[in-house]
Amino acid sequence: VQLQASGGGLVQPGGSLRLSCVTSGFNFDYYAIGWFRHAPGKEREGVACISSSADDNTYYTESVKGRFTISRDKAKATVYLQMNSLKPEDTAVYYCARFSGSNPIAGTWATPFHYESWGQGTQVTVSS
Questions:
Q1: According to a count of CB atoms within 10 Å of the terminal CB, is the N or C end of the chain lower?
Q2: DSSP H or E segment with residue 47
Q3: Strands 115-118 and 17-24
Q4: CB-based burial of residue 86 (10 Å sphere; 0-12 exposed, 13-18 middle, 19+ buried)?
């Protein structure tokens, strides 16, 4: 099982970035995939999650609703996180991870405990 995140960088406030999570080694269509972020001095935070290809339900933490969009490309076994209207408080290392099942229940999507495999992080810095 492999997940590889990329697409981070330095962007000015109000700018956009698209993160990619390329996966391999498992049935991509079956599992939900989530994005987390970890900023210095803060706990790891669930940012967004998308359920299996059968449902494509999406979940977002409140602070990114309306600005971030998670999506999946079955043909490329890749999950994207489109981030618009970026703010300095979005600065963090972003990770993608495979959920333990296909469709999270209640608030489990935002809990790291429920994720089985993690990719390496990609740094996102929002600064002028």
A1: C
A2: strand 45-50
A3: unpaired
A4: buried
As beta bridge partners, residue 118 has 97
Amino acid (1-letter code) at residue 113:
F
Reduced to 3 states, what is the DSSP secondary structure of residue 70?
A: strand
Q: How far is CA 32 from CA 50, 52, 128, in A?
A: 5, 5, 35
Question: Structure tokens of 6?
Answer: 């990329």
Query: Each residue of 28-79: pLDDT tens digit?
Result: 999 999 999 999 999 999 999 999 988 889 999 999 999 999 999 999 999 9
Give 77-112 pLDDT, tens digit per residue: 999 999 999 999 999 999 999 999 999 987 899 999
